[in-house]
Write a structure and sequence with these properties.
The chain has 273 residues and is an alpha/beta fold. The chain has nine helices and 14 strands. An eight-stranded parallel sheet has the order 5-2-1-12-11-10-9-6, sandwiched between helices. A two-stranded antiparallel ribbon has the order 3-4. The structure holds (5S)-5-amino-3-OXO-hexanoic acid and zinc ion (ZN).
Length: 273
């Protein structure tokens, strides 16, 4: 089986120090958490950034500072900025980190409820425009899908030339579509041949989805953005601790861990670091 790519979503835009005091806000804290994940075995850092008080931002210069700090500590890691940002941000705000020409970035492939009155808006024009800009700049999209209909939309956009093969999907399960093994089997068998996939199980489903993906030949995302607990009721001390748990499960199941350069080959990413 292919080596396992572990992505760590170290920060997110919604989770706070009230949820877990180890959630990073400052440039130094973001560097520290990325390094802990990298040293534990993560080859991709999915990156949101915050101002020092925890407010989420897509500010280009804040991204630049955080990317430099991560690069200093983790020279070869793949850095994947978010273009989702936080609910309510404009498209222009969200696109700022793309100007820094990262190797990868997220591309959210649909609109969905995000709890309470919040709606995470991604219109068809937004998705097509983000995809076009990423293609022009040679940034590999990780296609974020929250249900099977978003896979179907991505396949239509591939046929229309907006999304290039081989496509890489992140199934974010436990927000809209349930995080069960049955749902993961269904959605992962719905993507085109030659595509790759990872799964982010939200909340208590994080390690169940990780174990299932390891067994099925997919890849895994963990991190404070998705879950702040290492086990029931016990807060994780770091993002690295979450990654270490995935590495332990993978070892038990006989799956080797991909280095960042091995991840680049699997995902068809041209190195840019
Ligand atoms: N924070 C969410 C509104 C992404 O990074 O692309 C969007 C999100 C997805 O986290
Ligand atoms: Zn994100």
């Amino acid at each position: 089986m292919e080596k396992l790519i572990i992505t760590c979503a170290i920060c997110g835009a919604e989770v706070t120090k009230e949820n877990n005091p180890n959630v990073p806000y400052t440039v130094e804290e973001i560097g520290r958490e990325a390094e802990s994940a990298y040293k534990a075995g993560a080859s991709i850092i999915h990156l949101h950034v915050r101002w020092d008080d925890g407010t989420p931002t897509q500010d280009k210069e804040r991204f630049r500072a955080c990317i430099e700090e991560i690069r200093r500590r983790c020279p070869d890691v793949i850095i994947q900025p978010s273009t989702g940002g936080a609910v309510g941000m404009s498209d222009e705000e969200r696109l700022q980190p793309i100007e820094l020409l990262p190797e990868m970035a997220t591309l959210d492939c649909g609109t969905l409820n995000f709890g309470g009155d919040e709606i995470f808006v991604n219109t068809e024009n937004t998705i097509k425009n983000f995809a076009r800009i990423m293609n022009e700049k040679g940034v590999k999209p990780e296609i974020e899908v929250f249900d099977k209909g978003m896979v179907d939309l991505a396949v239509r956009y591939h046929k229309q030339g907006y999304l290039l093969a081989p496509m890489h999907f992140d199934f974010v399960l436990g927000v809209q579509m349930n995080a069960t093994v049955r749902d993961l089997a269904y959605i992962s068998s719905s993507i085109p041949e030659g595509s790759t996939w990872t799964v982010a199980g939200i909340g208590k489903s994080e390690f169940l989805m990780a174990a299932a993906a390891i067994a099925m030949g997919g890849h895994v995302r963990v991190g404070f953005e998705d879950n702040v607990y290492i086990s029931k009721g016990v807060l994780a001390k770091s993002n690295g601790e979450l990654v270490e748990k995935v590495v332990r499960i993978a070892k038990e199941l006989g799956r080797e861990i991909a280095t960042p350069d091995e991840a680049r080959k699997i995902l068809n990413i041209k190195p840019r670091y």
